[in-house]
Design brief:
Elements: E1 9-13, E2 19-23, E3 31-33, H1 40-51, H2 67-76, H3 78-81, H4 85-102, H5 112-120, H6 124-144, H7 170-179, H8 185-196, H9 200-203, E4 211-212, E5 215-219, E6 226-230, H10 233-239, H11 260-273, H12 281-293
Antiparallel strand pairs: 1-2, 2-3, 4-5, 5-6
Helix pairs in contact: 4-6, 8-10, 8-12
């Protein structure tokens, strides 16, 4: 006898041995199915549940027309699902905070001055990401007809006087090189950052297989932009001393490729040992860009 197999159907047995069947599909409410699998009433209930449209996450607990319902609608949209996983996670962080504080507010009563007042309470870096997340939400609402106009349109985060990460000086570069000789892992990481001017997320993925005709082929993780970065003689001299046998130039003590945060922590330690506590990997990239602008590379 062939066993009946139905998608999204789960069986549950209570302590008295009675068996219950439920239709459970992600994004849909749980539905109890009557009768036995294969019976007319069971199959009718199953077909009804199967034909229902999954409910966006959070809709059942959100008031129609509210900020919370709009956020749930955004999460279920094709545009949001098409974003990179890291971007989705970041926007969710800010939108969920916004939902907790203002989820019951009617979407139509969300004026531009409210957005500006909210951003003014945040630090510039946090405000910038918060604005991006809210703009993603509001543009979705306009596209879906939930709003006529985007209240974030024209809103900008106030710039700060800070110049960001400290750009390494020539003296600091010489100090690092004096402390970490050619052949060390620290010097290899330093040279890759300095002479390719790429982000740490791209540097830690570079390996021998990316070298083509005197250049390193890079597809930037952040922008997905393909680049061919020429290998300068100074970098080639360092690469010639690098150990082989790995898919990436930089590997941890365990022989594995670095994760982004682990690499930053390790590079921070190398800088500290060299007495460069105020220097960073990002600041080295900044120096490289400034040097290129002044035609020093």
């Amino acid at each position: 006898m062939t066993k009946l197999r139905l998608r999204y159907v789960q069986a549950w047995c209570d302590r008295d041995g009675r068996v219950f069947h439920y239709f459970r599909r992600r994004g849909s409410p749980r539905v109890r199915l009557p009768g036995l699998p294969g019976s007319a009433e069971f199959m009718q209930a199953y077909q009804d549940a199967l034909g229902s449209t999954p409910e966006p996450i959070g809709v059942s607990r959100s008031k129609p027309g509210s900020v919370s319902a709009a956020i749930a609608s955004l999460y279920a949209s094709q545009g949001f699902r098409a974003l990179k996983g890291s971007t989705q996670a970041l926007w969710r962080t800010y939108l969920e905070r916004f939902r907790v504080q203002h989820g019951n507010m009617p979407l139509s009563l969300l004026p531009k001055k409210f957005i500006i007042a909210l951003l003014d309470t945040l630090s510039p870096s946090v405000a910038r990401n918060c604005l991006k997340a809210l703009r993603c939400l509001m543009q979705h609402c306009v596209e879906c007809g939930l709003l006529e106009n985007d209240p974030t349109f024209g809103v900008r985060v106030r710039s700060t006087k800070s110049d960001g990460f400290h750009a390494w000086t020539d003296a600091e570069i010489a100090q690092f090189e004096a402390h970490h000789p050619v052949g060390s892992k620290a010097r290899l990481a330093f040279a890759l950052l300095l002479y390719t001017a790429q982000r740490r997320s791209d540097v830690i993925r570079m390996g021998p297989q990316h070298i083509r005709d005197g250049a390193i082929a890079v597809t930037q993780k952040k922008t997905s932009k393909p680049l061919m970065v020429p290998i300068r003689p100074e970098l080639q001299a360092i690469l010639d001393t690098a150990p082989g046998g790995h898919l990436t130039f930089l590997v941890s003590k365990g022989g594995r490729s670095y994760a982004g945060n682990n690499f930053s922590e390790q590079f921070r330690a190398w800088c500290d040992v060299a007495g460069l506590q105020h220097c960073s990997a990002h600041g080295l990239r900044k120096h490289a860009h400034l040097a290129f602008l002044h035609m020093r590379f």
